[in-house]
Amino acid sequence: MGELLYLYGLIPTKEAAAREPFPSYKGFDGEHSLYPITIDQVTAVVSKLDADAYSEEVIKEKMEQDMSWLQEKAFHHHETVAALYEEFTIIPLKFCTIYKSKESLQAAIELNKEKLENSLTLLQGNEEWNVKIYCDDKELKKGISETNESVKAKKEEISHLSPGRQFFEKKKIDQLIERELELHKNKVCEEIHDKLKELSLYDSVKKNWSKDVTGAAEQMAWNSVFLLPSLQITKFVNEIEELQQKLENKGWKFEVTGPWPPYHFSSFA
């Protein structure tokens, strides 16, 4: 019976050495515990897996056909990485990152040694935060209909037409409002993002989530992540709170969360 290694993350060897004995966490299979493997200045945090029970074919079948297993294991991975993040600077690994042996893991780390050491240095003293911006499209459309110059000009243009012509032209106004709505949303969000990124080291704009995913009544208009120096966190959060107070009556809502394990600003390929 062979063994595999489930990789949770990579941490600085100095930090791992300072925490002896290594913190006790249950592994992916619920039986083995996590333990460190030191490779020069980088330490891998892993747990053992049975090669037959967790082969690539078995895991693929589980992920496709056993939703309860997938949810349980994904939750375990998320919670374990989050717990490690509380104690160490970490490059978090994606769900189900598995190596066939200690030697294959070591070879991969040595191949990316300089990149990994630079990433760990970058992450020390910095935090990943997420900002989601939501908007009430109905409320925003109302404002655009009343104040947008293009819409007002179109309304004035059709006001002199016959009732029959006006009926068809009003549909064009609805289409114009939809276009102006998207332009307005992007403009507001881009301006906010540009202002917030002045406080960050790095930033990234992610794909918006649907209402089915968020469960929110409002539409998500923007989804971004920032790598922030710890000293800038308070100012960053205060900035968003001020934006919320300024814009909430105009149909905007902000959600700021963090710190998160830095999935978006570290990688291990």
Automatic annotation (TrEMBL):
<dbReference type="InterPro" id="IPR009430">
    <property type="entry name" value="GvpL/GvpF"/>
</dbReference>
<keyword id="KW-0304">Gas vesicle</keyword>
<dbReference type="Pfam" id="PF06386">
    <property type="entry name" value="GvpL_GvpF"/>
</dbReference>
<comment type="similarity">
    <text>Belongs to the gas vesicle GvpF/GvpL family.</text>
</comment>
<protein>
    <submittedName>
        <fullName>GvpL/GvpF family gas vesicle protein</fullName>
    </submittedName>
</protein>
<dbReference type="GO" id="GO:0031411">
    <property type="term" value="C:gas vesicle"/>
</dbReference>
<dbReference type="GO" id="GO:0031412">
    <property type="term" value="P:gas vesicle organization"/>
</dbReference>
